Amino acid sequence: MLNKKIVLCATALLFSANVVTASLLDETKFNVGGELSLINKARYHNENRLSKNKPGVNLFGGARFHENLGAEVGFSFISRGKGDKTRQPSNRVREAYVEVLGFMPLSDKMELIASSGVGYMKSKPHSSNTALSKFGARVGLGAAYKIDENLQARAMVRYHKGDKNFLKHNTSASVGVVYTF
To answer: What pLDDT score was predicted for residue 134?
Structure first.
């Protein structure tokens, strides 16, 4: 419970700092993008993992308030796979999320990215009409390469904390593009 409060307070503080920075510097740029999640490692409360995972897709939109600060809202089709033990049925995992991003430029073309936020993860077994869902903290690290003034390629690794009685966590690695306008 304490971790959730800390993440929520830190996210609210970062959003407040972004709003103040944006109004003072007036550098806000908006973006849209998509990523292909090549690796998704979902772990369940009974230690099962999904095997035979298909790649997932992340779609998002956001704003970059400053050279070093931004935010994104998105939706992830995390995985659809078959259980690796008889106790875990085939399953679909989806997530809606909000993240604050920090950017650290390394050069004119390259930058590192760190993200922190909250996601609402939903898991639905194919053998049931019941879906299980949970809010949880998300963190990520990555890098972006500027292809031109408006287009970036990026790679991210993310971790989403779930619930000890359900989907414990999901770790994903993705590559994609971001278009800034």
So the answer is: 78
User: Residue 77: what residue type?
Assistant: F
Of 91 and 135, the structure prediction assigns the larger pLDDT to 135
Q: Give the whole-angstrom CA distance, residue 95 versus residue 139.
A: 14
* pLDDT confidence tier of residue 82, bands split at 50, 70 and 90: low
Instruction: Show the 3-state SS of the chain.
Output: CHHHHHHHHHHHHHHHHHHHHHHHHCCCEEEEEEEEEEEEEEEECCCCEEECCCCEEEEEEEEEEECCEEEEEEEEEEEEEEECCCCCCCEEEEEEEEEEEEEEECCCCEEEEEEEEEEEEEEEECCCCCCEEEEEEEEEEEEEEECCCCEEEEEEEEEEECCCCCEEEEEEEEEEEEEEC
The token duo for 67 is 């050279």
Please give, one letter per residue, the 3-state secondary structure of 45-62: CCCCEEECCCCEEEEEEE
What is the pLDDT at residue 174? 93
